[in-house]
Design brief:
The structure is a single chain. 39% of the residues lie in helices and 12% in strands. It is built from 41 helices and 32 strands. Strand 22 (951-956), helix 35 and strand 23 (980-983) form a beta-alpha-beta unit. Helix 1 (2-16) runs parallel beside helix 3 (135-149) and helix 7 packs antiparallel against helix 12 (497-507).
Length: 1201
């Protein structure tokens, strides 16, 4: 113990004489001693590696090199030979690229004597993984080195004063006796079973390293040797714990990235092999699919509208078009005026962007109407305006070139009610209610299409030319709506889930499960993957978003996208592979109302003599009351109090830089607040931290942080900053775009912005400021001081911004936007493409019952009978009929047969419209017998309504039509009891005709044209067959039984590839197969069904729940009158029936054993999408009876008591 204390004392003496350790730099009485040994410089590449877990077979240590040279991405293995005394495994990732057993001198600060010991892990084979010496062990061998290192912590640029200690961090991690060393600790209480120090570090401190330097100063200043000893060892434990977590996280991240890269490369190789040819050098284009419309490379971009004549010429080309556009943005509070930006984390820049986009698009030539769909919030905690169903967005510029004025023209906010009726909930809790929004939005779009058809469509519905989703929740909704309506989809991410997940995992504060519990991040990522599957165009703000964020997704690969694009240009088949078009279109801005301020605080603004001076806006007085000298240049930051906005670093930079404080004031516009205690915990904590820093640096009279401001006052705030010749700053750690930078530039403000994200592209175009490292407060201070002090530089940046700002106008944005939509292949419901001459003659619009037009639509389908025919003949007849139609060989007698039976058909098909209620059987059972046993029980419960004809029935199943018909015939069931059959998990749709004695079925081939979007066809089938052949049972007794998955050619159809599974336990989960298909750019919907014994692969936007929306679109079946019967679990598409405007009745005890088989390896928990508080979803008792079913229908208000 005494020896240890002496070592500690030696350490304190060594540090106390060095000015950079703990004393002021200007302490001339104790100058820094000249070091006896000069440390040798170490090349950065030499030690640029990650330590992986040891090889499980040999126990040897592995290191993954991250250097830039020839050793890049190589894995080095430590030698097997046993090292001698004080030697270890030395990794060199530089030019030597080797792992050897030798000794290296530790790099050290100049004020600590050199210590010659090996600080890399031993080469001795060991079973323990990731051996790290504990501080207690390390203290006895190299005490003063470890404790000196304790002051440093991790290499975090924002941690001032810790840079001098970073070089010793590896010593704590990698040196010392084994973990089982029995040497005693410095602390006597550590010798017992309970370890207060370890508990303090592991359970109290966690992964927060922000106050390490302050703790170190307090520890070294303690007079009592015993207390100082205790504090120093606590610091040692603390650093050791933080660094251990850092090493572990880096290793896990490297392994994740390696696994992802290998999967991507394997999928790319297989895709290229299938396509059987690569690109030549001359065909290699950009890494990503599009060049920014505002980047340096102007080649190939659309010509900029630079004059009124050019604008009028472009507008003339758009005349005659009557476009209907739908935008979707679900979360936050959205209204046209007085937006409450910064009210919460959901009401931010995205809200302003979508409102301004809708308003600008509606002003463009050729655009008739724009609908912005969002959530209706009728809650007492928010303003009443958010509960209004419709709000018209008045254009900012009444002199707009558009002349598309009509009864329903313009831009509108349409609020769809979904979710809790009287609550405003965060976006993380909206996921269970997405299907309800989709149904409500679908109803609105259908009604509006009919209205627009009457006004400008000549009586035919005017369908949306595109549906544009904003953020993951709206993207998921847009994908479902796009599939239901068969119209093109666009998507803008704004921020992406995978990128956020990677950042949160790197921080190490939360596990993956904890992150998902808080942010529902896995549901969000799957929604974003679906948007990649479904989108025609993905709009981004910057190239960085494509290169660093979208490439993290399974569904997008820039290299494979380039190959596919080259093949499309050459008119060569892509074998069923599709990739969305990534387009960089920076957000726009309305500049007409902005007049840059040319004056200053000492003089009047430049202008005409007859212009009268207007009074100062009220917000100016609200801000200037904070300042002692309001005439100093204003440094302006406009952001909500969120940790990622990095406002604390800005305040620190301002407080630490005395020249900057003397030259300028700081204004922080951090949203609106009434009481800090009423703010969210994160926002309140951040605001309190800022206020404490203002007090710490005594910045009173120099920093303004007003409590309130209106959205309409934001331009006045910019004008005030410009009038004082100030600077606008965005110090966020990562900024997806940075719309405030464009707004500030339009008002004549130079900018200082983060170098991470969108500001890089903005700076490249505007050249009106400086980029900074947001982690380095000194970089922030230097940039601000440079712009404030150098008036010539300030004027140059201001003039550059004003000269180039037109490149970010809404006119430019919308022109590029509409040109991208025009490049998409037009799509709309398939039956509207018919040019049958009888169509117009026999049409009876708005008929309350069936119409002859519907009958003519049906007459184009094929009718066939499957009764009295052997199974093989029946199957052959079905397949031949479908194949004949798909090739255009429509049987001539088919039209005459069905048209001649028009009177009989009229009594049947309109039934879907006229039914009071429609019951859908979506019960997933192991076999068809169990399915129909439950169907019979439900029939018995509603027998009276069934006999009256007021209730219709639909069967939705994973089975094939031939299987269903065969079973119904053999068991005496009547197919005519059902109005429709949704078969093959939603890939096929059938109706029954009135000929019950022959059991005929009508096959809806228009449904196939509705769902065929991005269907991979034969290319997809070959890939699936290859995957199936790779699933081998190594324990099989013979080769005939070793194939676990086999193609079921007898059941497969053109839009459903079916596979049989012999042993579900050996098959990878559905998410893995879906991931593999996405990596190869094959878009499909993979469904594991029949308790894992069957796999159906269907078009990406097809499903049983989507088929119900098709019936609503095609036949007007009211979804609110639909009741869906499901079991406790089911196929992997089971969740599609849990939400929506329809009623759902869960039969307890039915299919409850399926959960363990199919849902154990879900992408996200089922609870994330289960609307537990919805009145439309109820459950029967466990052992339910017919009476219980009827009671449940009464509770759903479907039946009367």
């Amino acid at each position: 113990m005494g020896k240890s204390i002496l070592l500690v004392a030696f350490l304190l003496i060594a540090i106390s004489v060095h000015p950079t350790g703990v004393r002021a730099a200007d302490d001339k009485k104790n100058p820094a001693p000249v070091p006896a040994l000069k440390p040798k410089p170490v090349q950065e590449d030499t030690t640029n590696y990650d330590v992986w877990t040891p090889d499980p077979e040999t126990g040897r240590q592995l290191a993954y090199c991250k250097s830039k040279g020839a050793c890049n991405k190589k894995v080095l293995t430590c030698p097997e030979r046993k090292p001698k005394k004080r030697k270890g495994c030395f990794i060199n990732c530089g030019s030597k690229c080797e792992a050897t057993c030798k000794c290296r001198q530790l790099i050290h600060p100049p004020y600590i004597p050199a210590l010659s010991f090996c600080f890399i892990r031993s080469c001795v084979p060991r079973i323990q993984s990731h051996h790290v010496a504990t501080p207690s062990q390390f203290t006895h061998t190299h005490t003063h080195t470890a404790l000196t290192e304790a002051a440093g912590g991790q290499k975090v640029a924002a941690m001032a004063g810790n840079d001098w200690i970073n070089s010793y961090l590896e010593a704590i991690l990698d040196v010392g006796p084994g973990l089982d060393d029995a040497k005693s600790s410095l602390l006597l209480r550590e010798r017992g079973r309970f370890s207060p120090t370890r508990y303090f570090v592991d359970n109290v401190i966690g992964f927060d390293e922000t106050d390490l330097h302050r703790s170190w100063v307090k520890a070294q200043a303690t007079r009592s040797p015993q207390e100082r000893n205790t504090r120093l060892e606590n610091m040692c434990w603390r650093i050791w714990n933080l660094a251990r977590q850092k090493k572990q996280l880096e290793s896990e991240e490297a392994q994740r990235m390696t696994k992802r890269r290998l999967e991507r490369e394997r999928g790319r190789r297989e895709a290229v092999a299938d396509m059987s040819e690569d690109l030549s050098e001359g065909e290699k284009g950009d890494i990503v699919s599009d060049v920014s419309a505002h980047g340096d490379n102007h080649k190939g971009r659309l010509p900029r509208i630079s004059s009124i004549d050019a604008m009028e010429a472009w507008a003339n080309q758009q005349k005659g078009k009557k476009l209907y556009l739908v935008l979707i943005s679900l979360h936050g509070l959205i209204r046209g005026e007085n937006m409450e930006l910064g009210r919460d984390s959901d009401t931010g820049g995205q809200v302003k962007y979508v409102v301004e986009l809708a308003r600008a698009l509606a002003s463009m030539p050729g655009v008739y109407r724009v609908d912005l769909l969002t959530r209706q919030v009728a809650s007492p905690e928010v303003d009443w305006s958010y509960g209004e169903p419709t709000e018209m967005l008045a254009p900012h510029n009444s002199d707009s070139l558009t002349d598309e004025i009509g009864e329903s023209s313009g831009a509108y906010i349409i609020r769809i009610p979904f979710g809790p009726k009287d609550k405003y909930i965060p976006k993380e809790l909206l996921w269970p209610h997405i299907p309800e929004f989709v149904d409500g939005a679908l109803s609105h779009i259908i009604q509006m299409s009919k209205v627009l058809g009457e006004q400008v469509g000549g009586g035919r519905p005017v369908w949306p030319v595109a549906i544009h989703g904003h953020y993951a929740d709206a993207g998921d909704s847009a994908a479902l709506l796009s599939g239901a309506l068969n119209v093109p989809m666009l998507f803008t991410g704004h921020s992406l889930g995978r990128d956020k997940l990677e950042q949160l995992l790197r921080q190490g504060r939360l596990s993956k499960d904890e992150i998902n519990d808080t942010y529902k991040i896995l549901r969000r990522i799957e929604a974003e993957e679906l948007t990649v599957d479904a989108s025609e165009v993905v709009i981004t703000s910057t190239r960085q978003e494509i290169e660093e964020q979208w490439r993290l997704y399974n569904g997008f690969d820039p290299v494979l996208e380039r190959k596919l694009r080259a093949r499309i240009r050459r008119n060569v088949s892509c074998y069923g592979r599709f990739m969305p078009r990534m387009v960089v279109i920076p957000p726009g801005m309305e500049f007409n109302h902005i007049i840059p301020h040319d004056g200053d605080m000492d003089g009047e603004t430049d202008g005409t003599e007859d212009r009268q001076a207007s009074p100062d806006p009220p917000i100016w007085a609200e801000i200037m009351r904070f300042f002692t000298n309001p005439r100093k240049p204003m440094i302006l930051a406009l952001a909500r109090p969120d940790p990622k906005k990095n406002l604390t670093t800005l305040v620190k930079a301002f407080g630490e830089c005395r020249p900057l404080r003397e030259l300028a004031n700081l204004t922080l516009i951090m949203g609106n607040r009434d009481n800090i205690d009423e703010m969210s915990s994160t926002s309140a904590s951040m605001l309190l931290s800022i206020i404490k820093m203002i007090d710490k640096y005594d910045l009173y009279g120099q920093v303004a942080y007003p409590k309130h401001h209106k959205q309409s006052e934001v331009p006045d705030i910019y004008r005030l900053a410009a009038k004082t010749k100030g600077v606008f700053i965005n110090p966020a750690f990562i900024e997806p775009f940075g719309l405030t930078l464009i707004e500030a530039a339009a008002h004549g403000l130079p900018m200082v912005a983060t170098k991470n994200g969108g500001p890089v592209d903005i700076h490249r175009v505007l050249d009106n400021g400086l980029l900074i490292d947001p982690h380095d407060y000194q970089s922030v201070a230097d940039a601000l001081l440079k712009l404030v002090a150098d008036k010539q530089l300030w004027s140059k940046c201001r003039s550059n911004g004003l000269r180039n700002i037109h490149l970010f106008s809404w006119t430019e944005h919308c022109k590029t936007y509409l040109s991208r939509i025009a490049s998409c292949k037009p799509r709309h419901p398939g039956w509207l493409k018919s040019n049958d001459s009888d169509d117009d003659e026999n049409s009876e619009p708005e008929s309350p019952g069936d119409s002859l037009r519907d009958m003519q639509d049906i007459s184009l389908n094929l009718k066939f009978s499957m009764d009295g025919v052997e199974s093989e003949d029946r199957k052959s007849k079905l397949e031949n009929a479908v194949m004949s139609y798909s090739k255009g060989n429509v049987v001539k007698g088919a039209q005459r047969t069905v048209s001649g039976e028009k009177a009989d058909q009229q009594a049947k098909f309109p039934a879907l419209r006229r039914r009071d209620h429609v019951y859908v059987f979506a019960i997933d059972a192991d076999n068809i017998k169990n399915l129909f046993e439950n169907v019979k029980r439900i029939f018995e419960a509603v027998e009276n309504e069934k006999n009256e004809g007021s209730t219709g029935f639909i069967l939705a199943t994973s089975l094939q039509m031939a299987e269903i018909h065969s079973f119904m015939v053999s068991n005496g069931l009547n197919p005519s009891d059902f109005d429709a059959f949704i078969c093959n998990s939603g890939a096929d749709l059938y109706y029954t005709s009135s000929h019950s004695e022959d059991n005929p079925f009508v096959f809806d081939l228009y449904y196939h044209s509705h769902i065929e979007y991005r269907w991979g066809g034969e290319g997809l089938r070959k890939t699936l067959v290859r995957w199936a052949s790779s699933i081998i049972d190594k324990k099989a007794q013979n080769k005939n039984e070793e194939h676990v998955v086999t193609e079921d050619e007898a059941v497969s159809t053109n839009y459903c590839y079916a596979f049989n599974v012999q042993n579900p336990a050996l098959v990878p989960p559905a998410k893995e197969l879906r991931k593999m298909m996405r990596i190869q750019a094959l878009r499909c919907h993979v469904i594991y069904c029949q308790n894992g014994r069957k796999i159906n692969v269907i078009p990406v936007l097809a499903s049983r729940s989507q088929a119900l929306r098709y019936l609503y679109l095609r036949w007007g079946m009211d979804l609110s009158k639909v009741v869906v019967f499901i079991g406790e679990s089911g196929d992997t598409d089971y969740e599609g029936f849990l939400g929506g405007v329809h009623k759902t009745l869960i039969l307890k005890g039915v299919s409850n054993h399926i959960s363990n088989q199919l849902h154990a390896n879900r992408i996200y928990p089922l609870s994330d999408v289960w609307p537990t508080d919805s009145p439309n979803v109820i459950q029967t008792p466990e052992q339910f009876s017919v009476a219980n079913i009827r009671e449940s229908l009464v509770k759903l208000a479907v039946l009367k008591k």
